[in-house]
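2024-03-11 09:14:02 DEBUG pipeline.ingest accepted 1 chain
2024-03-11 09:14:02 DEBUG pipeline.ingest length=456
2024-03-11 09:14:03 DEBUG pipeline.predict start
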Amino acid sequence: MIIYDLADWAVAERTNDIPDEAFHWAKRAVIDWCATTAPGAQILPATGMVKALDDDIGRGKARLFPSGVAATMRTAAIINAAASHTVEFDDIFRDALFHAGTPTVSTALAAAEHENLSGEDFLRCVIVGYEIGTRIALVMGREHYKFWHNTATNGSFAAAAAAGTAMRLDRDQFANAFGIVGTMAAGLQQTFRSDNMAKPLHGAHAADTGLLAVQSAKNGITGALDILEGEVGYGAAMSKDCDWSKVTEGLGEWYNVARMTTKNHGCCGHAFAAIDGALAIRNQHGLTAADIKHVRVGGYSATVDICSGKSHKTPVEGRFSVPYLIANGITYGNARLDAFTEERLNDPVSSELSPKVDVYLDEEIDKGFPHRRSANVRIETYDGRILEHYQPTRIGDPDAPFSDDQISEKYFELAGPVMGDGPARALLDACWSLETLESVHDLPIGGTAAKFVRAG
């Protein structure tokens, strides 16, 4: 049975010899999670959730990031998960359209703190969560993404895998946890096709669902063991023609945590290739917004369906508008956090250029989606030039990855202003040496390491 194959592997991975490469990439994933969670924690919806869940804050063994305030495991996981998905800088498993870090690291950290695990064991939780979540997401495929948000749905399995590893579930408990989580995994795409704040709650839901499933299974509650492949199960209900034999293909031979995309822009990843292509033309030809008569962007289906709108009145709209993102990029040279301030969103230069950007479906580019994320950008200038650029991949994708130094630079850019240079540096150093920490509480979240007695 598929669920037992996954459960067997997850249990064994608590003590297996995991390749150094996987541990290294897991540390990169944790650092990238810290980078994107720090600014997200300062704004809605995370700040609203802190008020809503006040009864569970100020007590417990887990911590809110980056403040270090104590919270119960559940509350820490869901608030941190919402924060990590808010500013749209969280990592992506490209081939399955899945923000793996948001549900996985958020849940792994809360559960590891609750269980007082070592740094190495925390990394094992991260690795198992990434692996199982990404593999299920791959099987669910492009068909699933027509309606569902993978970070909420497949992310629930990732969260359960991470939490189950932390809580040392046995084979039957792990299988039942997956059976339970499969019946609660949900999150609709309509949420990020309109202007609202609920998309980050998808990550929170995945963390919450994964933890609930694991705690339930650990205490004797059973789940549907055929939830994945059953005739009215997860695959049948939410995708089409799922080949579940592929979920264990190469399991333990390679690790998907080492195949992640690091986001280089603070917006929807479906806009990245278009932004990168427009910036390449801008930088090569020294263009300014005043030079541009028209921009035409050919992209894949998700770029058109999700990111082709021209309105950018709010940060949410701006993060999902290729016309605005290209206009802002031409004007300012990037799409970082300040691209979504009120001042930038109302910038007259970008606002004048944005309506001149049109997005269309390029059938050839769409054939490569989701395994290849590319764009054709064509810019017509007022002096009659036609400037074209094919962007074959996104900067930060597995075939154009960030270096370790670039990961650290991104971390400092996003987390430094929130945490302060000294605390940010101390946390980064600790993350790069996570496998040496006796306790995950030695991570100086909030500026200091929490003092907990190691469980015997």
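2024-03-11 09:14:41 DEBUG pipeline.report The chain is about 50% helix and 10% strand.
2024-03-11 09:14:41 DEBUG pipeline.predict end
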